[in-house]
Design a protein that fits this description.
Layout lengths: L3 H4 L4 H9 L7 H11 L5 E4 L6 H12 L9 E4 L3 H14 L8 E4 L5 H10 L3 E4 L1 H9 L10 E4 L2 H6 L3 H8 L7 E6 L4 H10 L4 E4 L10 E7 L5 H11 L5 E4 L3 H13 L4 E4 L5 H12 L5 E4 L1 H4 L9 E4 L6 H8 L9 E7 L4 H11 L4 E2 L5 H18 L4 H5 L2 H7 L5 H20 L30 E6 L9 H12 L9 E3 L4 E6 L3 H7 L4 E2 L2 E2 L2 E3 L51 H7 L6
Parallel strand pairs: 1-6, 1-7, 2-4, 2-5, 3-4, 5-6, 8-13, 8-14, 9-11, 9-12, 10-11, 12-13
Antiparallel strand pairs: 15-17, 15-20, 16-17, 18-19
Bound molecules: adenosine monophosphate.
The site of adenosine monophosphate has 17 residues, from helix 4.
Length: 602
């Protein structure tokens, strides 16, 4: 075998395992840090972006240096999030799968502590932990760190961002003075500098690329739009990139939830990830995203920290982050492991200064991009479809039996006619949606006062809509999608013209265009549902504000949903209103999310 990791000093058992993972050549950080760390005699500071192979850079030396004949904690890896904690644990287990007696335990909040205590009790050499839960276990005197030789602080800047400074201090005070500390960080704010001074003696410093520089494989683009056009512009960008597999960053949990709901309602394959979801819900979303049965992950900064998903094509900053450093973390979710990626920011004309600031920090220029026109999108989608038809794998066996009938049906059509019709099936809905679509670009120097409301508009109803009360709700088994279907069936109104739907327990509210109110009343004159008379009324004004968020028709570009169904997106959940567990529960990470928000602003 000729794997260069052998030359770096890694044993065959481990090299065999990582070769199976596709590690054929060390990444630059691995190449430079492994020989240093293998000596076991240095403190170490590695400045490197996420996705550059840091885990193996410290993980492989740990596996070489520890004594796995012994079963006490010898190494502690601290990291900011549960996701990263599980990722590192899993990676270490994979690297060591051909070694015996390697015990790695993941310690993180939001999961059963008794399981973790049991695993620790059974014996462990490497503990991978988030600081909060680790401290909890230390305070219970359930772990002995007196023989720890190596402490790794991974994504140190993130841990400090999240307010873990005190916890880290307390944890490290239980480890021996002469241990070695290896710190990895994407950026080097003064807090990290301070921590390295505090815990390390004459550390070996390694900077991959210029300090704070973003990954060179990422292209940074910005689009300038009016605040009110932001969502429409965002959808155009997505439509223009049919193969997108992206993470969309919002500034707040509410914005995250709302964008996800709006996208789902508009037929996109999207879901949200934020701190108000329970751990179980977050895991479920992440599983779907990892498996690529979800195309767009809408996330807050905190929730998306440490996410390592392969082949993310686009990071979209729906809102720019409050802190400049977070831009680097966000964009680092794409272009991992040597791949390329695009980081897109949708801004208003007043935010151009922030872009210039980010350019200075990452040392790279942004490209000013133009929101595609409706025509561009249609053309792109059309040729995407043609390409798909051309490349589709035909199941000869299954289709054979139907061929004679199909041929029969098409007997009177020429090849050209047939092609036109196939293409039109999907294309028509795009044409319809994008006909008369306005230009959404705003020149860079525009100073439109109306842009001052850069926040995502959340509530409110158009004057040309009426809010109707209906005496059906979730107790009757309705989600928003079901109610929309039922209402449209009953009234013959078109779903895309209906506004916000707010499903309560025994009743709901539906916004309909004023022009359609009479039609709705007529349709429900003698309607029954499961033997009960269905009643609609014009809702009192006071009811308007009681709903939480939601989405009104005014945000729909061109006045309507653009999709007729979800068949376009594989495995997509196109009925967001039925998403699992709409109840919002607290979870322990919330405290961190709140703390993290105290950081300095732009
Ligand atoms: P990390 O920065 O450790 O999160 O790694 C980012 C991604 O790169 C992970 O998916 C790793 O599996 C992958 N990776 C790390 N090192 C290598 C390597 N030497 N060759 C190929 N892929 C790697």
């Amino acid at each position: 075998m000729n794997n260069p990791f052998i030359e770096l000093g890694i044993r065959h058992d481990i090299v065999n395992a990582i070769t199976e993972l596709g590690f054929e050549n060390p990444t630059p950080i691995q190449e430079q840090s492994i020989p240093v760390l293998l000596t076991g005699s240095n403190d170490f500071v590695g400045l490197a972006q996420t996705g550059t192979g840091k885990t193996a850079a410290f993980g492989l030396p740990l596996l070489e240096l520890l004594d796995f004949e012994e079963n006490y904690p010898q190494a502690l890896v601290l990291c900011p999030t549960r996701e990263l904690c599980l990722q590192i644990t899993n990676d270490l287990k994979n690297y060591s799968k051909n070694m015996s007696n390697v015990n790695v335990v993941a310690v993180y909040g939001g999961a059963s502590i008794s399981d973790q205590l049991r695993q620790i009790k059974r014996g462990v050499q490497i503990v991978v932990a988030t600081p909060g839960r680790m401290l909890d276990i230390i305070n219970r005197k359930a772990i002995d760190f007196s023989q720890v030789q190596y402490v790794v602080l991974d994504e140190a800047d993130e841990m400090l961002n999240m307010g873990f400074q005190e916890d880290i201090d307390s944890i490290l005070s239980t480890t021996p003075e002469d241990k070695k500390t290896w710190l990895f960080s994407a950026t080097m704010p003064s807090e990290v500098r301070r921590i390295s001074k505090k815990y390390m003696t004459d550390p070996y410093e390694l900077t991959m690329g210029a300090k704070n520089t973003g990954n060179a494989n990422i292209e940074h683009e910005y689009y300038i739009v009016r605040a009110r056009d932001k969502y429409a512009a965002f959808k155009r960008i997505v439509d223009f990139n049919p193969e997108i597999f992206g993470i969309v960053f919002c500034r707040t949990k509410i914005e995250t939830q709302e964008i996800a709901e709006a996208l789902i309602k508009d037929g996109y394959n999207a879901d949200s990830l934020h701190g108000d979801l329970s751990q179980q819900q977050r895991d479920k979303v992440m599983k779907r995203y990892r498996e690529r049965s979800l195309q767009l992950l809408i996330a807050t900064d905190v929730a998306a920290r440490g996410i390592d998903v392969n082949d993310v094509t686009h990071v979209i900053n729906y809102s720019l982050p409050d802190e400049i450093e977070n831009y680097t973390h966000r964009s680092g979710r794409t272009a991992r492991a040597g791949k390329t990626g695009v980081s897109i920011s949708i801004i208003n004309s007043k935010e151009i200064g922030k872009i210039r600031q980010i350019e200075r920090v990452i040392g790279k220029k942004f490209i000013k991009a133009e929101i595609p026109t409706g025509f561009d999108v249609c053309e792109k989608q059309l040729f995407g479809l043609i390409h798909k038809v051309h490349n589709v794998e035909v199941n000869e066996q299954q289709i054979e039996q139907y061929i004679p009938r199909i041929m029969d049906e098409f007997a009177d059509l020429s090849k050209e006619d047939l092609i036109k019709r196939f293409a039109s099936i999907e294309f028509n809905s795009f044409l319809e949606y994008y006909k008369n679509a306005p230009d959404l670009n705003v020149p860079e120097d525009t100073r439109a006062g109306r842009d001052s409301n850069e926040k995502f508009p959340r509530t409110g109803m158009r004057a040309d809509f009426t809010r109707l009360f209906i005496n059906l709700g979730s107790v009757d088994g309705f989600g928003r999608g079901d109610l929309l279907g039922y209402f449209c069936n009953q009234t013959s109104l078109v779903g895309r013209n209906i506004g916000k739907i707010d499903v309560k327990g025994v009743y709901s509210f539906i916004e309909v265009p004023n022009a359609d109110v009479d039609q709705a009343f007529n349709a429900f004159k003698s309607a029954e549902f499961k033997g009960r008379q269905v009643r609609i009324e014009i809702s009192a004004d006071g009811d308007r504000n009681e709903s939480r968020g939601g989405w009104s028709n005014k945000k729909r570009e061109g006045g309507g949903d653009r999709r007729d169904g979800g068949n376009r997106r594989e495995g997509g959940n196109t009925r967001g209103n039925e998403r699992s567990g709409s109840g919002f529960r607290d979870f322990s990470g919330k405290r961190r999310e709140d703390r993290g928000e105290r950081r300095k602003r732009f």
